[in-house]
Amino acid sequence: MSARTEEALAFIERCVVERGFPPSRRELGEHFGYASPANAGHHLVAELVNEGLIEIAPGIPRGIRITRANMVARTEEL
Question: For the residues of 6-73, what is the DSSP string, one character each?
């Protein structure tokens, strides 16, 4: 996993813990300072989905869900 992907996953996890819900794709892009936040957010989300670290609920604005496989893998790293 790239450093940027790891940072994006950590940001999503932090948002869920602190706010109780995941960031929007736009918030992801803005957080990482992309000129086009929405497109950048889609790119970061696509990388995380391809890695199997998150799932997306279609049609839901903040439909990012951290996968069980990701949670298991992350706790095994500890």
Answer: HHHHHHHHHHHHHHSSPPPHHHHHHHTT-SSHHHHHHHHHHHHHHTTSEEE-TT-TT-EEE-HHHHHH
CB atoms within 10 A of CB 48: 23
Domain 3-77: which CATH class? mainly alpha
d(CA 52, CA 39): 20
Q: What confidence tens digit (pLDDT) does each residue in 21-51 have?
A: 999 888 888 888 887 867 777 778 888 888 8
- Is residue 32 within 8 Å of residue 7, measured between CB atoms? yes
pLDDT at 28: 85
Average of per-residue pLDDT across 47-68:
85
Structural domain boundaries in the chain: 3-77
**Cα(7)–Cα(47) distance, rounded to whole angstroms?**
12
